[in-house]
Structures are given as structure tokens and as C-alpha cells.
Amino acid sequence: MKHGIADTDVLVVVDVQNDFCPGGNLPVPHGEEVVPTINELGQRFRHVVLTQDWHPPDHRSFASSHPGRQAFQSIELPYGPQVLWPDHCVQGTAGAQFHAGLQLLRAELILRKGYRRDIDSYSAFYENDHTTPTGLAGYLRERGLTRVFLAGLAFDFCVRFSAEDARRGGFEVVVVEDACRGIDMDGSVAETQQALQSLGVACTPAEAIR
Ligand SMILES: [Zn+2]
User: Fold this and answer.
1) For residue 113, how far is its CA from the centre of ligand 1 (angstroms)?
2) Ramachandran region, residue 135 (left: φ > 0; alpha: ψ -120 to 50; beta: rest)
3) Are 148 and 161 in contact (CB under 8 A)?
4) Pairing mode, if any, of strands 74-77 and 80-83?
5) Helix or strand run (H / E) with residue 137
6) What are the distances in angstroms from CA 19 to CA 6, 15, 31, 69, 174?
7) Share above pLDDT 90 across residues of the chain, in percent, rounded to a whole number
8) Helix (H) or strand (E) holding 179
9) Most CB atoms closer than 10 Å: which of 8, 136, 201, 203?
10) Residue 1: what pLDDT?
11) Span 125-163, pLDDT tens digits
């Protein structure tokens, strides 16, 4: 299926930051491979938004904030289960910067998320309590942008949560599958593919978007 790009479409590029690429603190395998595809997509869309994971140094999602715990363990926080991660995307660090190869000069908004110490935010739309909005839905609505194309890192976490929230929020959603890479913890990539399908989120290769 081909997707023609309309003026009401927006490309949301999720967390293409140094720490999520090889050499970073929380590398998504082959994460850097999304960069050329996203750059090319960015030329085709009239509207582009970037998200940037942006944590204080003592963020609650960091294993280092929980003595005796290890990275990639899951714990219960007041808002539900939370995977503990290595320290990553700390505000102002090189790891939090966008990948140097990313060239999206026309991006209209950089949305930062995860800046509250006690709550993580995988999704570009809601923090991990699923009730605190980031403001992105309001921004898109006010601008008349109704269909969200998602690309970036990681497919099975921040892209997945963003897609689910966008869909529930009434947006049409398309995930550009070859412009994403996943972490794949305990089958999370396959689980994500199923979840997206059941929500009616289209997954498509970049070449089908014109
Ligand atoms: Zn994070």
C-alpha cells in the first residue's frame, strides 16, 4: 500500500540520539542505520517533529538510582512496571544530543520528554503513568496535523508507546518500519508488531511513502 504525503501529515522522529546508537550508553542494535532513511523521509514531509529523551542525572528510570538493582531488571513504581535502564540521555550531555548525521533542518518542533525525575516517558504523547500529557497531541491538533508517521528508536519501546497513544488519541498512525530499530527484550519486537496490528496501526517501508 502506498501512502501519499498530505499537508496534514507529520513525521515524528523518535529519540535518534547518541546514547541510543552504537557507542552510546543504551545502544539499540544497528540504531544508527535509521539515520539515512530518516534524512530522506524528512525531505518528503512538509512537517517534521523530533522527540528528545532528556533526563535529569538522578532519573528514576536509571538502575543507578536503585542500589542493589541491575539495568534491564523491571521494578514496580507507583505508576506501574518500569524497566531500569543504564544512565542515558542525561540533560546537556553528548549522549543526549541527536546523532550527528541526522539532517532535519526543517523540523518544526523538538519535544523533550522524561525530564521529570520520578516518571519515565517512552511515549511522545503521555508519560509512563499514561495520564500526564506531553502536550504533543494538543500541538498537532492545533496545527491541523491528523496523520502521524513514526520513525526512530527504539521500535519496541518509545516508537511503540507513541504509536499506541497516538492511535488512542484519535490520530491516524503509520509506523515506518525500516526507519526504526528495536532493542528486542524477551520477544518485545514480535509483541510490538502484534500490538500495533491489533490497534490498526499500519507498518510500511519508507519507499511506500511518497
Ligand atoms: Zn530514557
Assistant:
1) 8
2) left
3) no
4) antiparallel
5) helix 136-142
6) 33, 9, 10, 21, 25
7) 98
8) strand 172-181
9) 136
10) 78
11) 999 999 999 999 999 999 999 999 999 999 999 999 999
pLDDT(2) > 90: no
Instruction: Give the CA radius of gyration of the chain.
Output: 16
Q: Which three cell numbers stand for residue 20?
A: 541510543
Q: What whole-number distance in Å separates Cα of residue 102 and Cα of residue 83?
A: 28
Q: How far apart are the C-alpha atoms of 180 and 16, rounded to whole Å? A: 10
For 111-125, the pLDDT digits (tens) are 999 999 999 999 999
Distance 204 CA to ligand 1 centre (A): 26
Cα of 118 vs centre of ligand 1, distance in Å, is 12
The rounded mean pLDDT for the chain is: 96
**What value does the mean pLDDT take over residues 9-32?**
98
| 113 catalytically annotated | yes
Q: Which amino acid is at 26?
A: L
> Which grid cell is 125?
504523547
Q: Does the annotation mark 180 as catalytic?
A: no
- 194 alpha carbon – ligand 1 mean position (Å): 24
CA distances to 32, 63, 78 from 167, rounded to whole Å, are 27, 31, 25
- Confirm whether 2 is a catalytic residue: no
pTM beyond 0.90:
yes
Q: Distance between CA atoms of 160 and 3, rounded to whole angstroms?
A: 20
* Active-site annotation holder among 9, 19, 113, 203: 113
